[in-house]
Design brief:
The chain has 130 residues and is mostly beta strands. Helix content is 6%, strand content 38%. The chain has one domain: Jelly Rolls (Sandwich), CATH 2.60.120. Keywords: Metal-binding.
């Protein structure tokens, strides 16, 4: 058996993304690649997006659970506004871009869950795929 109590405030920046992201799953010893789950906390100031540009995943399901503020998620069909204590599930093959709009009043804090944790992101170009 194994248990891992992690405080995201104790973690360093996870990678070289231009936004504040902490990987809880890596801190718990789960590999970034080919593990059952990836779990990260994002803090997005107004005007920031969650590291990846407009993209989709071949295999991974993504879930965004908002802890504070509101997360906007652009898709080819509409823009979802995910409020505090709401979750948005994104199925594999579904293009999206998560961000905090420039005109937002507050920072957005969101938990991003990816299962399985695989690097299968594909860039989505609305102008050519729409």
């Amino acid at each position: 058996m194994g248990y891992h109590l992690i405080d995201p405030d104790d973690l360093d920046q996870w990678d070289d993304r231009g936004t504040d992201v902490r990987s809880l799953s890596v801190a718990a010893g789960y590999d970034y690649q080919n593990s059952k789950i990836g779990l990260r906390v994002y803090e997005l100031s107004p005007g920031e997006q969650s590291g990846l540009r407009y993209h989709s995943h071949d295999e991974q399901v993504e879930v965004f659970y908002v802890l504070q503020g509101a997360l906007h998620v652009e898709t080819p069909d509409e823009e979802y506004v995910v409020e505090t204590d709401q979750a948005l599930f994104v199925d594999p093959g579904s293009p999206q871009r998560a961000f905090n709009p420039t005109d937002a009043d507050t920072t957005t804090r969101a938990l991003a869950i990816g299962a399985p944790s695989v690097d299968d992101a594909r860039t989505y170009e609305p102008s050519t795929d729409a």
